[in-house]
Design a protein that fits this description.
This protein has 247 residues and is mainly beta. 15% of the residues lie in helices and 41% in strands. A hairpin with a 5-residue loop joins strand 13 and strand 14.
Amino acid sequence: MKNNLLLLLIIISVLGGCKKDNKEPPQSMLSGSVIVEGTKQPVGVASNRVQLELWQSGYALFQKIPVHINQDGSFSARLFDGQYKLVRLNGAPWANNPDTINIELKGSATVEVPVKPFFTVGAETITFNASDTSITGTFSVSSLDATKTADRVSLHLGLTNFVDAVTNQIPLPAASNDKVPAADYLTAPSTIKVFLNPDRYPGSSTAELRRQLGVALNKGYLFARAAVRTGGVTERFYSQVEQISLK
């Protein structure tokens, strides 16, 4: 009798553990876009470098849920239904904003998150010149914070549509595509010209650069975007990624 009772308790315990382990994962979807305040312009950032935070109310453990911002300013998270507070974190290429955004999630929700960048990039034109195998990027830099100064303007090229100044780019010599802005960078367009011919970069230290340039020229296209960096701020504000034909 005792053995039967013990066996019954074990079965109940196992079934209870299985039920707990098989709890349904979250099914509701929160999606949205980080936009320039007062506009519908999505921000451009380095992929998975800038985050938002979500906090869900009504639970004993009030824990943060990190949400990465995609390079085109979009974001998404699969969550349980409920009330959430969305927080904009420090360290981004825009002004800190301590205000929270309240979100009620039931099945799905879409939210726009406004931010005020220190600088933005716009009116970008990125073209390929077959005669000298070069790419020229021309773009405007606009200031949204008169107390800040831009310390770099740059043009980033990549073999995939993930492009930024951190790791996702063709490893050009920094001086060729990452420059100190001209004195009139707020009133005149910035122009950066980059040469793609692998023969321009001899030496063992540039072997990977020559390889990637050869791949791009063989495929007949690459991806590019322009950027501006604020002095004292690590993250840059980017234009959206463009596919550039090399034919």
